[in-house]
Write a structure and sequence with these properties.
InterPro entries: AAA+_ATPase (IPR003593), ABC_transporter-like_ATP-bd (IPR003439), ABC_transporter_ATP-binding (IPR050763), P-loop_NTPase (IPR027417). Keywords: ATP-binding, Nodulation, Nucleotide-binding, Transport. This is ABC transporter ATP-binding protein YbhF. GO terms for molecular function: ATP binding; ATP hydrolysis activity. By secondary structure, this protein is α/β, with parallel strands linked by helices. The chain has 2 domains: 42 residues; 212 residues, Rossmann fold. Helices cover 40% and strands 23% of the residues. The protein has 11 helices and 11 strands. The strands form 2 sheets. Strands 6-7-8-3-9-10-11 form a 7-stranded mixed sheet, with helices on both faces. It is globular and about 55 Å long. The structure holds adenosine-5'-triphosphate. Adenosine-5'-triphosphate binds next to strand 1, strand 2 and helix 3.
Length: 294
């Protein structure tokens, strides 16, 4: 079964939803188990009921509240929300930087709670605040990161050649990283996130602080990720960009998933045409129930 296209993915998700044991009376249990195992492997990133509370100055903030979603290979999922909605906290839990109070995440079927190192090797992360090692050349730095991820040196050089071409950094490879402009540094950090060829990419505010050319680079990068069949999560405040970039959206507010679906599903559920209007409604009716459009 191919899962390259979004249409394929939608069919698979529908099939998984329909094939609950209760509905599969005629199926032998091993056939059902096998089918579900095959399809669940296609959910490259799965988040199950993640919850995180912080206590600060005697107040408890529920930063992420029972959050669940899944992303398939070749799919770009926009995790969107206003300031303080819980986006970064969610990414930090998926990356294993902080432990959830409850719930868990699975990357390519590997639970981050019980096997964090294997799970991390399957994740790539790019953030607007990424830095570079100023005294290393770009080539040294990228090969160093490949080595940290345990990539075989021959394979790392090959991978670097391919990515340098895609992101147009061949001319920068022997420059000291500290001498790069903001846009050049951005392209290098985008390559760094992919050097170990992870099946899941997390992008946190990837266009923050970039000019038009930088934003176009991100768009090109994301279409490259889609073509490579990566499962991609993009966190951003730029709802206009998200509409153009993402296949599916999760709208977070106060740590809760308020709506989830593709744009036409969200339009149907909210009665609004654009994400910005949907958010406007959310902010003005903050006790909205959770709705999943799919
Ligand atoms: N270490 C912490 N200690 C206390 N509170 C925290 C901590 N980290 C996050 N929070 C709180 O959790 C909530 C969610 O924060 P988070 O950074 O995840 O939001 P966000 O959606 O990424 O926001 P932004 O778009 O502004 O980056 C906020 O109320 C924030 O103040």
């Amino acid at each position: 079964m191919s899962c390259n296209g979004y249409a394929d993915w939608n069919r698979i998700r529908t099939a998984v939803a329909i094939l609950s044991p209760r509905r599969c009376v005629g199926w032998g249990s091993s056939a059902l188990r096998q089918f579900r195992a095959t399809t669940e492997n296609l959910l490259m990133l799965q988040i199950h009921g993640l919850t995180k509370r912080f206590v600060a100055e005697n107040e408890t903030v529920c930063a992420v509240d029972d959050l669940s979603f899944a992303v398939a290979p070749g799919e770009v999922f926009g995790l969107l929300g206003p300031n303080g909605a819980g986006k970064t906290t969610t990414l930090r839990m998926v990356l294993g930087l902080i432990a959830p109070d409850s719930g868990d995440a699975e990357v390519a079927g590997i639970p981050t709670s019980t096997d964090p190192f294997t799970a991390k090797a399957k994740l790539g992360f790019v953030s607007a605040s990424d830095g570079v090692y100023p005294w290393l050349s770009v080539r040294e730095m990228l090969l160093y990161f490949a080595d940290l991820y345990g990539v075989d040196p021959n394979h790392a050089s090959e991978r670097l050649r391919t990515l340098a071409e895609v992101m147009d950094i061949q001319g920068l490879l022997d420059r000291r990283a500290g001498t790069l402009s903001t846009g050049q540094r951005q392209r290098v950090t985008l390559v760094r996130g992919l050097i170990h060829d992870p099946p899941v990419m997390l992008l946190d505010e990837p266009t923050r602080g970039l000019d038009v050319v930088g934003v176009q680079t991100i768009f090109r990068y994301i279409s490259h990720l889609r073509q490579e069949g990566k499962a991609v999560v993009v966190c951003t405040h730029r709802l206009d960009e998200a509409e153009r970039l993402c296949d599916r959206f999760g709208l977070l507010h106060r740590g809760r998933m308020q709506y989830e679906g593709n744009l036409s599903e969200l339009r149907r559920v909210t009665g609004r045409n654009h994400l910005v209007e949907m958010f406007d409604d959310l902010m003005n009716h903050s006790s909205s129930p959770i709705e999943t459009a799919t």
